[in-house]
Amino acid sequence: MNRATLKRASLAALGFGVLAALPGAAGATAPAAVNSGDTAWMMTSAVLVLAMILPGLALFYGGLARSKNMLSVMTQVGAVAALAMLVWVGWGYTEAFGEGGNAFFGGFGKAFLRGVTPDSISGTIPEYVFASFQMTFAAITIALVLGAVVERMKFSAVLVFAVVWLTLVYFPLAHMVWAEGGLFYSMDPAALDFAGGTVVHINSGVSALVACLIVGKRIGYPREPMPPHSLTLTGVGTGLLWVGWFGFNAGSALAANGSAGLAMINTFVATAAAGLAWLLVEKLSGRKPSALGFCSGIVAGLVAVTPAAGNSGPIGAIALGAAASFVCFYAVTWLKPKLGYDDALDTFGIHGVGGTVGAIGTGIVYSSALGGPSGEGWSMGTQILVQVEAVVVSYAWAAIGTAIAIIVAKALTGLRVSEEVEREGLDLGEHGERAYNH
Amino acid sequence: MKLIIAIIKPYKLEEVRDALAAIGVAGMTVIEVRGFGRQRGQPEIYRGAEYTTTFVPKIRLDIAVAADLVPRVLETIQETAKTGSIGDGKLFVLDLEQAVRIRTGELNEDAI
How far, in whole angstroms, is CA A356 from its chain's centroid? Predict the structure, then answer.
């Protein structure tokens, strides 16, 4: 989230409060007002992030799964996103952004959006729009986590896990990164995370890794081949993710301004560089440049540029995207088989690893010397240390919280489907339908 | 009467069909099949995970013809479906006991 904008908004609110106390001056000054341009853009951005989930992520993940689990993947992605929206309104928004609270949690004064009215303003946009925009981030993050555990986790377990995970992991991390008084926000200098590299990508990636380690491998992995059933749909999903990501990144400026413009061009070029870089590294390692490689590179680039979107110049973003592709390529082709965990759709390999490259790399590309917006008197060394600190806290928080959430889901639901259902496919076993009848 | 079963590469289908029509083959049934022979599948790589798919997609043609046409049909299919590389497919010839045209009730060679 754009820190400068938030700080500016809170200063304006403070100024208004002081002026309001002086009746003579109050009449002369316009109150903090909703900017219709900003509002229109933020409403659009929120809907763009929704398109990233449905149908974007649902198709991206669904295509990577086997055809017998297509509907299960799509239903899980959609259902946890929907669940996240309700939980967000219930206690998520206040746990992340409620006034008061401490470095880890917001205050609980806004539970069930108490006190929020059409006249409530956050920065230059209605608070309802701000809450909606942030809601979509919670929804996509929990959906991302599922990529590692699809094809074997019970639908009921997925729903229980989602509620516990959002409450223990996502909302506190969102508070730490974006809320005033949050842990990362109060670091000196503040940790740079424009659009959620830590809270969305490192968080979902690490949570995915821990979840798939506890849930266990799919039957037959890695002995049996489990190739994607439709790279066509994965390609469609990739395109929707890229388009939606403009809402995610440029929307994180919380305004239609120059910072949003910078985030926009970075979301183009970092991603383009990453898509091509993945093809290049495939070629260099003696393989063919593949369609799945291109899609993987695009997502790796989007992930890496997320924390850097408004914190880097376009050239820095290109370098960051390409670097992320190289590192993620080795994470999914070398690290995963080496360690033998069954991260089914490579959520950790792309989001966890790419998010880490992005979060630490942001501390480099932020430099004005590299075209970033740091300005004078900024120390790269100090910034990188803070970035690493934020990354370490995110890893630890996500790992511990996910372990608890999975254990709760296991106690309540049994966690995994029966062997019979897993072999037959979760589409028929859990949902009673088949994706393709022909 | 003979039944010829031809297993060929999918992209050769149109060429084979046209060549057979030209020598007077009046009909055929086309089936999409999977299988393996000496080719033993083909390797595929997804995000670095390498798979050898044991079953390769092929096209199977079922062609019923009068016995005297068999050598020409076999020769034509061999000529058109051959690429010289592994996986070109196989031809099988079976005896065909009876044929009936459903619409008219014609039998055997009149029916094919």
Answer: 13
Q: What is the dihedral of CA A307, A276, A52, A131, to 10 degrees?
A: 10
What tens digit of pLDDT does each residue of A366-413 get? 999 999 999 888 999 999 999 999 999 999 999 999 999 999 999 999
Residue B63 β-bridge partners: B4
pTM exceeding 0.90: no
Residue extents of the structural domains in chain B: 1-43+50-62+102-112
Which ranges constitute the DSSP H helices of A65-126?
Answer: 70-87, 93-97
CB A227 to CB B48 under 8 A?
no
Token pair 């995370």: residue: A193
Do residues B5 and B62 touch, judged by C-beta distance below 8 A? yes
Residues on chain B touching A346 (C-beta within 8 angstroms): 47
A295, A325, A332, A345, best to mutate vs chain B, most B CBs in 10 Å: A332
Measured CA to CA, the distance from residue A412 to residue A11 in angstroms comes to 47
Q: Residue B3: helix, strand or coil by DSSP?
A: strand
- CATH number of the domain within which A67 lies: 1.10.3430.10
Query: Quick check: bond before B10 cis, omega within 30?
Result: no
Q: Which CATH class is domain B1-43+50-62+102-112?
A: alpha beta
Flag whether the ipTM exceeds 0.90: no
Q: How far is B51 from chain A (nearest CA, A)?
A: 6
> Is position A4 within any domain?
no
